[in-house]
Design brief:
outer membrane lipoprotein receptor (LolB), chain A, alpha+beta, Cytochrome Bc1 Complex, Chain A, domain 1, 3 domains, 21 helices
């Protein structure tokens, strides 16, 4: 399965690319530039819809951004219905099918996106009436079809499967649950169970209750006059009926008053996701907001900030360490974060807290403050190049009840921030002794080392969905070893009573052909794995009839053939490939220098499993889990070093079926980085004839 992991990883790397831009050089200080913000024209329709118009004739396009402004909603047992309702809007109306909407939008080269709290559309000016006809139809006449709802629920569930294996997503869930509690709208977590509770009626009720013009803003930006905008807004949105929209008030989350260590287990992880976080009472546009942003920029705003310099440049614990402070109408939050190497998790927490304490202990230098102010000035000025920014500013002024000249004076107020202001902000908003120290990582390697950061020396454990769990260290059977667990697995797989019997059965297998399929990014991939006695191996990955990757071992040489070119497999990689191509590899491991360390018992998808650390002769380590009752392998975790970085690869096995005396896991869920897929075996052929060309490496 490791060969499969590497192949999928290569494909995913070719399809996925992400980058983050950081400020690497501290700007030189300078005076705040004078800015003249264009003021949007505004008017309100009789139904209460507030419209903002920003004229810009530099491009022949017009955009329409509809944004709702109502209180956050507690979704309870149907968490996810607001997002799904937004997605449903574009899946069909009473006048158009989903395909018709897509075809009409594509035909005019337009953009139309719907989401939980609004709609965004853009087209050439000459097509704007057609676009508005579609947009208003989507807004005012959604069909809410059961069939489309079920498709969306499946997509959301597929995403949840990926997030379940993603340490950053796990950290986000636990963070929300711990900071806000699940009775607060910011603390709710979507699960498969909550998705199952979403019905068409639930979505219709949300739409009918909250999608009203009197709680909405419409920003029109582009090559259009105010007179044109008013006529079009009245024509396409004037008949939209206003109605009273419920308001909601929520209790403030309980303030963290002492350090709490919160942990979510990710067995076998080579990295830990570390967050130091807590809520803050910081409202958008408040006098504290600008100094707080400068303060945070100095602490963790980028690659020139203190956290980055400490954890990456000084200690090499991580590729990057950052912080952010987020204002919010209800309750804001602060978070310092980094993905760090497992062995230095506790050291990383110490350094993060150290830098937070230093922000409170000493004033920043004038150079630091000037550099950060100039960086933020540049960002602000750059964003002004987008006319949409002017509309967003106008909406924010209304939405957050800001002074009319808030953004006009923004850079002037930014330039006034002093080291004293930053120091005062740190005293108020940096709380290294009143934080949630959240870590997602390997419990056995990390957890105990973090107890020193907790006020009471205790650790709170949470699962991937933010539920507290009671960590019980179950005793291992006396005398049980990792080697014995592995032996029991082989006996269970071959349905044998002894290794001698298992070996005898395996020797009867002269060849094996396994065919499996998965869907990845909308494409069906077919995997065919060939094994032939004594030690020939080949795996072919196809997308339709096109071969996208092939790995071959002819008993002596190994080769990888892919879209990136051909590569001879050599050295330690070749040795590992040769061993795993051996039809009797499973029973030969005990004599080939493998080490098996029994770590303990963990729960894997509701089943108790023995956790075994397996080290091959080259020193490569995998963490494997075997069902305590059936002895079958439930999960395997490996680490793969690639040009794109280090990836933790997880494979979960299920649906074992008997094929001529041997059990095969017909379903495998595999994840690596942000990618995941489900592989299903379609057929297994034993002792079938394989063409010699299959193993030809020439």
């Amino acid at each position: 399965m490791k060969k499969l992991s590497i192949s999928i990883l290569t494909l995913a790397a070719a399809l996925t690319l992400s980058a983050q831009t950081k400020k690497d050089v501290m700007p030189k200080p300078g005076p705040a530039p004078e800015i003249k913000l264009g003021k949007p024209a505004t008017f309100t329709l009789p139904n209460g819809l507030q419209v903002f118009v920003v004229e810009n004739d530099k491009l022949p396009t017009v955009s329409y951004w509809l944004q709702f402004d109502f209180d956050p909603i507690l979704e309870k047992e149907a968490k996810g219905f607001t997002d799904i309702t937004g997605d449903l809007l574009s899946t069909g109306t009473t006048n158009r099918t989903k395909d018709q909407i897509n075809e009409e939008v594509d035909f005019i080269g337009a953009t139309l996106n719907t989401y939980a709290e609004g709609i965004y559309a853009k087209s050439l000016k000459k097509h704007q009436t057609k676009l508005l006809d579609i947009m208003s139809d989507v807004l005012l006449h959604p069909a809410f079809k059961e069939e489309e709802l079920n498709k969306l629920k499946k997509q959301y569930k597929d995403n949840l499967k990926t997030e379940k294996d993603n340490p950053s997503a796990i950290a986000a869930n636990v963070r929300k649950a711990v900071l806000y509690g699940k009775e607060h709208p910011y603390g709710e977590i979507m699960t498969e169970e909550t998705l199952d509770n979403i019905t068409v009626d639930v979505c219709k009720n949300y739409y009918n209750t909250y999608f009203k013009p009197n709680v909405a803003y419409l920003a029109i930006v582009g090559n259009i006059t105010v007179e044109e905008a008013k006529k079009l807004a009245e024509k396409y949105f004037g008949e939209w009926k206003k109605a009273e929209v419920p308001e909601h008030v929520y209790e403030m989350p309980e303030k963290i008053t002492e350090n709490r260590v919160v942990f979510s287990n990710k067995s076998g992880a080579v990295q830990s996701v570390v967050n130091v976080t807590y809520t803050v009472d910081l409202k958008p546009g408040s006098p504290d907001e600008i100094p707080a942003k400068v303060m945070n920029g100095i602490l963790g705003g980028g690659s020139s900030a203190r956290l980055f310099k400490n954890l990456r440049e000084t200690h090499s614990y991580t590729y990057g360490a950052y912080s952010r402070i987020t204002p919010d109408e209800l309750i804001g939050n602060f978070r310092a974060s980094a993905d760090v190497k497992t062995p230095v998790t506790d050291s990383s927490v110490y350094e993060m807290l150290y830098e937070m304490k230093q922000m409170r202990k000493e004033k920043p230098t004038q150079e630091e403050v000037d550099g950060e102010k100039n960086y933020q000035t540049g960002i602000f000025a750059y964003r002004l190049q987008d006319p949409q920014t002017i509309a967003r500013f106008a909406i924010n002024i209304k939405k957050y009840n800001l002074p009319e000249d808030y953004y006009q004076n923004y850079l002037k107020n930014l330039s006034k921030v002093t080291p004293d202001d930053v120091y005062a902000s740190a005293q108020k908003y940096i709380r290294p002794d009143e934080s949630v120290i959240l870590v997602v990582g390997d419990k056995d390697e990390v957890a105990d080392k973090l107890k020193r950061f907790d006020k009471d020396g205790k650790i709170e454990f949470y699962d991937a969905e933010g539920n507290p769990v009671k960590e019980e260290k179950k005793p291992l059977p006396e005398g049980l070893t990792g080697k014995k667990v592995m032996e029991d697995y082989i006996l269970a797989l071959t349905q044998s009573k002894s290794l001698k019997e298992a070996t005898k059965k395996l020797k009867k297998v002269k060849s094996e052909v396994t065919k499996a399929e998965t869907s990845m990014q909308g494409q069906t991939l077919t995997f065919t794995t060939y094994r032939q006695k004594p030690n020939k191996f080949a795996m072919v990955i196809k997308m339709g009839s096109m071969v996208v990757q092939k790995q071959i071992f002819d008993g002596k040489r190994g080769k990888s053939i892919s879209m990136q070119g051909n590569k001879e497999i050599e050295g330690e990689d070749l040795k590992a490939m040769a061993r795993k191509a051996d039809m009797l590899h499973m029973v030969k491991m005990f004599d080939e220098g493998y080490k098996f360390e029994l770590i303990g018992i963990e729960n894997i998808d509701g089943k108790d499993a023995y956790k075994v650390k397996v080290t091959d002769p080259e020193g490569n380590v995998s963490t494997e889990f075997f069902d305590v009752d059936s002895h079958l392998k439930l999960k395997e975790i490996t680490v793969q070093e690639t040009e794109q970085g280090t990836f933790t690869i997880e494979a979960t096995y299920s649906d074992y079926r008997d094929v001529k005396g041997k059990l095969y896991p017909f379903k495998t869920h595999q994840s690596f980085g942000p990618q995941s897929f489900d592989l299903e075996i379609k057929s297994v052929e034993i002792n079938t004839k394989i063409s010699p060309d299959t193993f030809n490496v020439e």
